[in-house]
Amino acid sequence: MGGKPRSVAVGGSFSVEQPLWIAISAFRVLTLLYAIGRYAEHEQHYTNQLGAWIYMGVLSAWTLGTVRVFWSKETCTRRWLVVDLALIVLGILLTRAFDAPHWVAGGDVTLPTIRAASAVLGFAVYGGWLPAAFAGVVVGVANVIEAGKLDSSNLHNIVLLLLAGVAIGFVIDLARKSEETLARALEIQAATRERERLARDIHDGVLQVLSLVSRRGAELGGEAAEIAALAGEQEVALRRLIASGLSAPDGPAPGGTGTAAAVDPTTPQDLRALLAPLSDSRVSLAQPGTEVLLPYAAAGELAAAVGAALDNVRRHVGEQAQAWILVEDEPDQVVVSVRDEGPGFDPARLAEAEREGRLGVSQSIRGRLRDLGGSAEFFSAAGQGTEVELRVPKQRQHGSQHSGQREGKR
């Protein structure tokens, strides 16, 4: 039967097996009560009533005493299941010794009666269909020995017991595989999200600096141009590294620390206070006169996405380019638009830039909004500039505390 199978808990301590263990524990008690009542009804058939009552007492003490053991997959080991099965087989064989021979020949029920089914189902929940089939065969052989023959009644009961045990065992096997698949998918999702977060942080920090050094150094010439060339090479290499990392989500999730964990990510934050430092002589900010409240983590991510959009304006349009930020506080969402006066671009260029490892749009902007349950739309036409529209739903942010906590642990 092998060792005890590994159980998988998805999203915490819950496992699909746990309710089944509770059901098995309750089924053992109910079938015990049925066995006692059935024996009391046919007590006059037995030639050794005292021996039969002693067995029923032992079976009762064992069943009631191990309720908590069979209540959980952590406590019910194979040893407990084997002892339970042995006690059932003993009761079946004692029926032939204690019951009158003509009643045995007439098909009288055994002492454990349907209590035997709980032993088979226990093996099914524990190890799947194969251990269940083994236990069912053992009980079936004991029933044939007790009856002294294999008749249609015995065969009918044995087949039903085997079918029930194997069917439930097969379902358990499928449930375990499904749990393992789901757990693996959640691990991959978490690792991918963490990679995307790190990619955004690198883009907003290191890559922007390298890009600035490369651009300014080339303008200055001389030794600065050499430094600019090196910075440009490092920028390209780092972009390739980030892009390759994002395309391979099967590795372990990298760790990360941040100062945002010191603040409750669900604390209301006025978005205006985060956007105000972004405005200057080249960036105009239009926003409501009242507070625009979002959870702390969501407001910070939205402000960072706006900052990334402005970085793109300075990089692709020019340092002196004019840009406009418009904040709209709608009943169900917050909308922030960033518009520039640049020449515009072909929208197909976004997918091409992502393939080249340029993640300013895919991660620093769209990735952030996707994590918030929102969206980022780009509108551009030749000679008419570019507008980025960022939407964050309010209901999701206020109703998803756990999501905010994950973002706050950066």
UniProtKB/TrEMBL annotation:
Domain Histidine kinase/HSP90-like ATPase: 302-395
UniProt keyword terms in alphabetical order: Kinase, Membrane, Transferase, Transmembrane, Transmembrane helix, Two-component regulatory system
InterPro entries in UniProt: DUF5931, HATPase_C_sf, HATPase_dom, Sensor_HK_TwoCompSys
GO molecular function terms noted in the UniProt entry: kinase activity
Transmembrane parts of this sequence: 20-40, 52-71, 77-98, 119-145, 157-175
Segments forming a coiled coil: none
Protein known as: Signal transduction histidine kinase
Originating species: Streptacidiphilus jiangxiensis
